[in-house]
Structure to design on (333 residues):
């Protein structure tokens, strides 16, 4: 059995535990011995698509738990209704070739994964509980993002991002989607795309589904690893480094709507840009760059990177639109 796990849980354990603990490996002994060449799917546009939009659906189940802490987490997640709502909407927009169960359950470790054999997504209560516990360790730099996010919202937002990441792995498998980069990065981009596309025009930041991706990025960004002690498998992991993933998430959400997200994501840059706009003669070009560099610590992503984010988002969005239209929508539509 082969799983695509979320990765952050392992990385967090790696970051926080001096013994470099990792998530449990999920392969069987036999799988470790497989050294055959990979056989890719045919990648025929539309070959794997279902007959009708919404005919087959994602189903969400919250398994019972005897553990009191996880029972609280289960109630919080279930009561929010957000997981069923988002997946219902997604079910209507694509033609799944089969029903896809999403199961929240106790796993024995903090993880989430898509099973390529069973075609199910498993979301572990332990991972959501970890997000809940991590809230108290929030970095002050994230303060501008969090006036509209409490403990509960951060837990739900982070868990929803992970769920959409795993659904992304499912989409790659079920629809034989072509990808030209690391699948782990591709499905992070899918999760952002789903959230930003759920935003409505003129919606307040505090109401936007895309803000949940910002809440999720904190968990990635806060991981610290003493680099000189990092073992080789850390660098060889199939996931990009956690801080890079967090930066990429922030970059794409900012890029999806630079006007709305400049202030929370790049406050240093926004401050200088506002000042320069009101005082057009205040800076020579070198002085402007110096001012932007001096305030760069306020920004959640470096201002130089932020320049590229709107175009990066536009490219990913156009690519996902194309993939959904070509690979996930029946021809009759
Ligand atoms: Zn993954």
């Amino acid at each position: 059995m082969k799983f695509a796990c979320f990765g952050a849980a392992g990385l967090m354990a790696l970051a926080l535990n001096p013994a470099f603990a990792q998530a449990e490996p999920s392969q069987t002994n036999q799988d470790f011995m497989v050294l055959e060449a990979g056989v890719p799917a045919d990648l025929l546009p539309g070959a794997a698509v279902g007959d009708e939009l919404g005919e087959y659906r994602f189903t969400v189940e919250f398994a019972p738990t005897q553990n009191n802490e996880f029972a609280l987490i289960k109630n919080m997640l279930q009561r929010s209704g957000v997981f069923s709502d988002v997946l219902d909407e997604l079910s209507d927009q694509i033609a799944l070739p089969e029903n896809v169960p999403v199961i929240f359950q106790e796993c024995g470790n903090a993880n989430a994964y898509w099973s390529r054999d069973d075609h199910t997504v498993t979301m572990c209560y332990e991972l959501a509980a970890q997000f809940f516990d991590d809230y108290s360790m929030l970095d002050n730099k994230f303060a501008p993002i969090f006036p509209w996010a409490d403990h509960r919202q951060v837990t739900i937002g982070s868990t929803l991002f992970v769920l959409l990441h795993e659904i992304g792995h499912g989409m790659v498998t079920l629809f034989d989607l072509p990808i030209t980069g690391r699948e782990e990065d591709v499905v992070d981009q899918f999760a952002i795309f789903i959230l930003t596309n759920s935003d409505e025009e003129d919606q307040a930041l505090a109401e936007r589904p895309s803000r949940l991706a910002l809440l999720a990025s904190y968990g990635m960004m806060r991981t610290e690893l003493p680099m000189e002690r990092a073992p080789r498998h850390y660098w060889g992991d199939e996931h990009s480094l956690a801080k890079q993933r967090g930066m990429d998430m922030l970059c794409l959400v900012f890029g999806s709507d630079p006007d709305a997200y400049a202030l929370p994501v790049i406050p240093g840059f926004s401050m200088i840009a506002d000042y320069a706009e009101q005082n057009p003669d205040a800076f020579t070009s070198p002085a402007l760059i110096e001012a932007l560099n001096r305030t760069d610590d306020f920004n959640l992503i470096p201002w130089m990177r932020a320049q590229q984010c709107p175009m990066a988002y536009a490219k990913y969005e156009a690519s996902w639109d194309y993939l959904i239209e070509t690979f996930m929508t029946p021809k009759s539509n």
Summary: Residues 3-28+41-261+309-327 form one domain. Residues 4, 6-7, 165, 169, 184, 187 surround zinc ion (CB under 6 Å). The mean pLDDT is 85.
